[in-house]
Design the sequence.
C-alpha cells in the first residue's frame, strides 16, 4: 500500500512547537477495543519504521479483523510511503513502513479496521526527535512468534498478580486465626452474656476465613487454567519453529 498525504502543522502541535509523539506503552483504542502500543522504531538512514500494537486480552474476534492504517506527514515533500501490515496471532499487528521522506518533522499513522469506519480509530505519532534505531523488516513467522511471546508474558504477569492475591488472603487468615485465639482466651474471664457475644464474633471471623479460603482455591484454579493456556501457546511456538 502506498500513501501520499501531507497534513497541516496544527494536528500535531500540543503547545508551542512540541510534537505529541506517542510513547511505547500507551493505550490505543481501535473500534472500541483497547490495544497496547508496544514497539516504535524509526531508521532515519534507511528511511524505514516499525510500529507494533497488540491486544492485551486477545479473543477469537481478533482473527476476523483487518487493520487498515494510513500515514500522513507534516513538512515533507515528495511523500510516497509504502506500508505493510504483518499480522500475528489474535490482535497483534506490526506495521512496516519504507521509503519514508528524507526530511520530515513528524508523521502520524491512523488506525482503523476494515468495514468498521463508524467505530472510530486512533493515531500513533512519531516526531523527528525519535531515536534513530536500526530497523529490519520482520518476517511473518517472527511477528507470529512475537505475538505468542507477548501472550505468554501477559499471562505470566496475571499469574504473578494472582499469587499476590493468594498471599493477601493467606495473611488475612493468619490474622483472623490469631484474633480467634485471643477471643477464646478472653472467654475464661467473661460473663455468660459476654461469652455469647464473643462466640458471635468468633463465628463472623471464621466466616471471613471461609471466604478467604474460597478465594484462594478459586485463584489457584484460575492459575492452573492459565498455566495450561501457556503450555498450549508454547506448543504452537514449538510447532512453528520446527516445521
Sequence:
Amino acid at each position: 500500500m502506498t500513501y501520499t498525504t501531507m497534513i497541516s502543522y496544527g494536528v500535531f502541535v500540543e503547545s508551542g512547537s512540541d510534537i505529541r509523539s506517542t510513547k511505547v506503552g500507551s493505550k490505543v483504542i481501535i473500534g472500541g477495543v483497547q490495544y497496547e502500543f508496544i514497539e516504535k522504531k524509526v531508521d532515519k538512514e534507511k528511511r524505514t519504521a516499525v510500529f507494533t500494537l497488540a491486544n492485551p486480552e486477545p479473543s477469537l474476534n481478533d482473527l476476523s479483523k483487518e487493520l487498515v492504517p494510513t500515514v500522513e506527514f507534516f513538512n515533507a515533500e515528495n511523500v510516497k510511503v509504502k506500508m505493510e501490515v504483518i499480522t500475528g496471532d489474535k490482535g497483534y499487528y506490526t506495521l512496516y513502513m519504507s521509503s519514508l521522506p528524507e526530511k520530515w518533522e513528524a508523521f502520524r499513522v491512523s488506525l482503523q479496521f476494515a468495514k468498521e469506519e463508524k467505530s472510530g480509530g486512533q493515531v500513533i505519532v512519531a516526531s523527528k526527535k525519535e531515536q534513530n534505531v536500526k530497523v529490519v523488516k520482520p518476517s511473518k513467522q517472527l511477528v507470529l512468534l512475537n505475538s505468542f511471546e507477548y501472550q505468554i508474558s501477559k499471562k505470566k504477569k496475571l499469574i504473578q498478580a494472582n499469587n499476590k492475591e493468594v498471599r493477601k488472603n493467606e495473611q488475612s487468615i493468619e490474622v483472623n486465626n490469631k484474633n480467634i485465639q485471643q477471643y477464646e482466651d478472653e472467654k475464661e474471664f467473661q460473663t455468660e452474656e459476654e461469652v455469647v457475644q464473643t462466640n458471635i464474633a468468633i463465628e463472623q471471623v471464621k466466616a471471613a476465613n471461609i471466604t478467604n479460603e474460597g478465594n484462594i482455591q478459586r485463584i489457584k484454579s484460575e492459575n492452573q487454567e492459565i498455566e495450561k493456556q501457556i503450555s498450549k501457546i508454547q506448543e504452537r511456538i514449538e510447532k512453528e519453529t520446527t516445521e
